[in-house]
Prior knowledge:
It is a single chain. This protein is α+β, with helices and mostly antiparallel strands. Helices cover 53% and strands 10% of the residues. The protein has 9 helices and 4 strands. It has helices at 16-32, 62-70, 74-90, 106-117, 121-134, 142-151, 156-165, 169-182, 204-219; strands spanning 5-11, 41-47, 189-192, 196-199. It has a 4-stranded mixed sheet with strand order 2-1-3-4. The model has no long low-confidence stretch (mean pLDDT 95). InterPro entries: DSBA-like_thioredoxin_dom, Thioredoxin-like_sf. Residues 7-210 form the DSBA-like thioredoxin domain. This is DsbA family oxidoreductase.
Amino acid sequence: MTDAIKIDVWSDIACPWCYIGKRNLENGLAAASADDDAPSVEVTFHSFELSPDTPVDFEGDELDFLAKHKGMRREQVQQMLERVTGVAADAGLEYRFDLLKHTNTVKAHELLHFAKEQGRQHELAERLMAAYFTEGRHLGREDELVDLATDAGLDADAAREALQSGRYLDAVRADQAQATAYGINGVPFFVIDGKYGVSGAQPAEAFAQIVRQVWSEHREPAGVEA
């Protein structure tokens, strides 16, 4: 039995390119899964905070935040968001920046580590990103996060306890320390089998090609050079 390809994904819930990259990765893996010799792949998400100093309740809309954070004019930010919205649409995602509530994401990351422990990390990552980018949900608030956790199949009381205890914060910080060790300073960033790094929201076709290539390496007999 050939070992599965391990893909470690560093991302932030509040990163629009991360949700696009996630969907493109999924679509690329789905395409490769139709191969006669389909790759076996295990995907794990890791924490990265793009703006850790963001308050839980940011006063203003996404244009206000990015104009301040990036030092850009609102007109420039609007053009940038329109471009991202178009790219997201190509990936099958309907972004609603007009509804988006910018917030601190550390608690969402803590909840993702709880979900990983429960075997529901993928379901929660999808639910959180959809809630943030397409539904205008406030992911900095405990009650909202607990509701979304239940949507992803997690127990509400256990999710609330995980958030209130803060016991998963060390796991978030460990992910961030690993990102620093890898030299990751932007997300999404994909580490494949601990040795190949792929930066940015690559097209689905690129992800399919990558996993096919790495799978062929997995299938080579030990000691045989390509």
